[in-house]
Amino acid sequence: MSNENKPVPPQKNIVTLRQAKKRTRNWREAIKPLYGDSPDNMPHGFYIRMEDIQELAKLHTHFPTRQIKGVRVYFSLHQPLEPGKPTTAITGLFVPVYDATTEVDPEGPATPGHMKKQYLKDLVQVFPHTGDDDAPLSQYVSVYDVTTPCPPVCDPTSPLFGPVTSNDEEDDNI
Question: What angle do CA 122, 125, 127 make, to 5 degrees?
Answer without folding.
Answer: 125
